[in-house]
Amino acid sequence: SFVKIEKEPVKVLVTGAAGMLNLIFHLVFLGQIGYAIVPMIARGLMLGPDQPMILHLLDIEQAGEALDGVSMELIDSAFPLLKGVVHTTDVVEACKDVNIAIMVGGIPRKEGMERNTMLSKNVSIYKAQASALEQHAAADCKVLVVANPANTNALILKEFAPSIPVQNITCLTRLDHNRALSQIAEKIPNNVHVSDVKNVIIWGNHSSTQYPDLNHATATTISGVKPVRELVDSHWSKTEFITTVQQRGAAIIKARKASSALSAASAACDHIRDWVLGTPKGTWVSMGVYSDGSYGIPSGLMYSFPVTCEKGIWSIVQGLKIDEFSRAKMDATAKELIEEKAVAHSCLD
Ligand code: NAD
Ligand code: LMR
């Protein structure tokens, strides 16, 4: 007889999974990224097609009913890999024994909103949830902070959860990385597809000071693998390429009247998948991680670096040549992170 051996389910927490009561417009919004990401996870896009999971969904009290609805829809979807749904507005219950935590909960930036308004509201959430994760998540829990200001929220989470290994706390810059790949693919003529482009780098903050760097990127063309620098004009790579990627989040907010959601959800799946299952040979990705001083970036910051991943461990790619132009941009985004860190600490005092 045939006995199917299934892997043990992995417990995946998604915060901000339901909906927020928008008192100005009297509308209940579904937590946009949360709503987009849960079916992606349940279909195996985050952990692989043979990895069952139990989803833990957390949102605030006012969103409890919407959370019920999302949970009903997940059940109705009859996803073969989905072995259970825990939906709750209790942070302790939500964090219990989770192996992966996707932290999306918070308020998004709206058109015209000051960054510091968002910052002060969101960092206090990350301080509170740090303790819950530290006390109740599985010891090996991998954390991805998506909610903005993503780097600084992740830093606060790290500081208020000192027993979580620093290797296990990251923030999302993969969306910026994917945006950079696709801008390049569109720029190179002759059918270069986004999957033919690799090894761009997002340095620094997930904000408009980030430095999208194509100096080390390659593209597979009909005449072989070429440095991207040889395929695009250098003026474009120092100007429009950078500003388009830096401003893409704002462009989407302007167009959709809401911040990016499906692309952010997809990037979060990419981030965890590569972290857990490994990056393909010869390929790196961008992840916001705790700086160890690599490339002269001060430690004590969550900064986006090029990383490779193997067996669930990320390592910063070393030894890349940094020219003067890049150096200035890498330092400018580090400076913004130092300032954000100070603002965050002053909000929490
Ligand atoms: P949204 O407002 O649609 O959803 C946020 C959800 O978080 C809501 O359901 C809300 O009720 C919930 N929430 C608020 N406080 C919470 C708490 N204390 N605990 C649990 N849940 C809580 O927002 P969205 O569009 O899904 O965006 C979510 C976050 O992700 C925002 O901060 C946004 O700026 C950020 N974002 C980051 C990236 C990135 O690449 N890093 C990309 C896009 C958006
Ligand atoms: C994005 O990059 O799309 C989001 O972080 C939205 C924002 O506030 O820029």
Q: What labels describe this entry?
A:
349 residues; alpha/beta; six-stranded parallel β-sheet; 16 strands; 40% helix; 21% strand; globular; binds nicotinamide-adenine-dinucleotide; binds (2S)-2-hydroxybutanedioic acid
* Structural class designation: alpha/beta
Number of helices: 10
Name the shape in a single word.
globular
The parts where pLDDT drops under 50 for at least 5 residues are 21-30
Proportion of strand residues: 15-25%
According to DSSP, the number of beta strands is 16
Explain this structure to me?
The protein has 349 residues and is of the alpha/beta class. Helices cover 40% and strands 21% of the residues. The protein is built from ten helices and 16 strands. The strands form five sheets. A six-stranded parallel β-sheet has the order 5-4-1-6-7-8. It is globular, with a radius of gyration of 20 Å. The termini are far apart. Mean pLDDT is 93; it is low at 21-30. Bound molecules: nicotinamide-adenine-dinucleotide (NAD) and (2S)-2-hydroxybutanedioic acid (LMR).
Secondary structure elements and their pairing?
Layout: E1 10-15, E2 19-22, E3 27-30, H1 32-42, E4 53-58, H2 64-76, E5 82-88, H3 91-95, E6 100-103, H4 115-136, E7 142-145, H5 150-159, E8 169-171, H6 174-187, E9 197-198, E10 201-203, E11 211-213, E12 218-221, E13 224-227, H7 234-238, H8 240-256, H9 262-277, E14 285-290, E15 302-310, E16 313-316, H10 324-348
Helix pairs in contact: 1-9, 4-5, 4-10, 5-10, 6-8
This protein binds nicotinamide-adenine-dinucleotide and (2S)-2-hydroxybutanedioic acid (LMR).
